Structure formats: C-alpha cells, structure tokens
# Entry
Amino acid sequence: MYFYCVLFITNFFNNFILDKKITIAIDGFSSTGKSTLAKQLAKQLGYVFVDTGAMYRAIAFFSMEHGYITPDFFDKETLINSLPSIRLQFKFNAELGFAEMYLNDENVEKQIRTIEVSNYVSKVAEIPEVRTKLVEQQQQMGKNKGIVMDGRDIGTVVFPDAELKIFMTASAQTRAQRRFDELVQKGDQVTFEEVLKNVEERDYIDTHRSNSPLVIADDAVEIDNSNLNREEQFGLVLDLVNEVLQKG
# Structure
C-alpha cells in the first residue's frame, strides 16, 4: 500500500512538472551556441523554439538583396520604410526537426547563415524601428509561455519576467574557431582571421548600441562555455530548468 502511495505521489508530481509552462530566455554573445542549446531544451521540454537571431539575419539578408546595405553604404531610411512589406515566418521542417526561417514566403534558412550576412546583421539590429517590429512579434509568439527564445535582449527587453534567464559567453577566440569550423564544414570559403574580426566587431556593436544593448540581466545565470561540450552544457542548463519548475 505504501509503495503505491509513493508511486502515485511521484507520478502526480512529475506530471505537474511536465504540465507547467515557463519562459526560458537565452541571451549572449554571437557564436556561443545559443540556438543549439535552445533547440535541445525545446525538444526535451516540448516547448516552442524561436531563434530571434534568424529574424534579424533575415532582415539583413533582405537589405543586402535590395541593395540597401553594402560595405560602404547603408540606406537606413529606405529599409525602415520597407519594414511593413517584410513578412517573417518560422515553418517547422519535420525532416530537420526544427523550424526554418521564411522571408516573404521564401525559405532563406541557408542564405541567412553566411559570413556576408553576419557582417551586416548587428548594424541592421541597431535600428530602433527594426527592433520594435521584431520585439512585438517575439512577445506575441511567447504570450502563452512554453517557449525557449534566444537572442541578445530576450531576458532584458522581450521577456523581462521570464522564469529562467541564461546568459552565454566564451572567449572571442573560442567562438571564432567554432564559427570557422561550422562555415568550413558547410563549404564556405573563409579564413579564421575574417571570422574572428566579424565576432569582435559584432561584440562591439551589440554591447554599444543605444537601443537594447547586449547586457546581462540582473537575475540571469551566466554560463561561460569555453571549456564545456554540448552535452555538459545541456545537462547544466536542464538542471536549472528543473529547479525553476520545482520551485513554482
């Protein structure tokens, strides 16, 4: 009788934990593996995953395609005026197991991951009108909780009341090496020096912009994953999730 009572209580508690829905905000520097971690958590918890970086990358790609931005030129006003015509959607790809970014009904998941887009994305993300448009969409996506969202200002601006906030960091050299390996594996022709320069420039722009700069939320848990592999990092964060769920 005692065994069945314990089993009932345990199952009830586990089901309660699984039924609870919280908001998980993952912020941090570029190339710290935020999206990879967010995907892992969303899959484990049955939550919705939103890669906000992909949204900014899509607008940067749109700007490139329309000639609004080049290495020596940026027509911010024309981009701002074009924002109402930009439609962004995440569509789930069952074969890949995650949602891909669509820009005006076109799958641009591959195009937005290039070093060229990386060179422009922080400049595009500086524009207040761009951030306002995307923050409104992001908040709408997470209104029912049960979401894992990663970016630069999720825990400070998009979801300041998120139950769990993670801030990820690593040395610039480590992040550049990871990004370089990833791009080379995809077949991109890049040098390590080029990738490192991009990482350092994005760090500076992200932390110095006047609108929603990259900062650590007061209640965020900072994780330096310079010496952590994906499994170790996932286990560490999953423990934090379980602590939050059990506290509630």
